[in-house]
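Dear colleague,

Thank you for sharing your sequence with our group. We've completed the structure prediction you requested, and as agreed, I am returning the results in plain text so they can be pasted directly into your records. Please verify that the sequence below matches your submission; if there's any discrepancy, let me know and we will rerun it promptly.
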Amino acid sequence: MDRRIAWIVLALALPLSGCKIVQIADQEANAPAGFDAAAYADGIWTDEVLPYFSEAARPVDEVVPAITGDFAGAAETYGYRPGEGSPWSFVVSGTGRVLAKNTESRAGTMDVAVEGVEEPVVVQIGPVIRGNGVRDALPFVAFKDFTNQLEYANAGKALTALALDNFATNAEAVAVGDTVTFSGAITMTSASDRILVTPISLEKAGS
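Please find the predicted structure tokens below.
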């Protein structure tokens, strides 16, 4: 009986002899690092994002009348979208006089009268910025380059945060009646959407 017990114990022990027991702490230490959206956005901001907006921007007094007159035609001429069904993005720049500064809501806006545009151009000034206008305007930031929807969303938030950092102080100093220059993106899915500029830069003219 003792010999049979000994063989059973040996048989149970053999499968474990080729296994490596890894502590949970070791598993966590060797796990791949999570996506750092802030580092990603910071890594492309100066060398890619800012130059792209500078080079791609078209005059807002040219783009907005085109959008309101013939959205489909304006989209083909001035717009960008990564694929069928995605929103259209229009990169614009302009100068105009501030008619109103709306800060009652945290999603603040500024109404800017631009010569050649019938209605005031509405520019987001935050601190809450709606949408992902900055991300969606960039042809080199594509959903396929991210692991999942969450990473893509976080990249958009991080890019928006950098844009806000870039203009927030200037926006606070602007008063009604001031003349401002701005550049940014308009994102729309159809002609019925509100025309809203998400800026990457905004400052008093001549400052």
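Summary note from our side: The chain has a mean pLDDT of 88.

Kind regards,
the structure core
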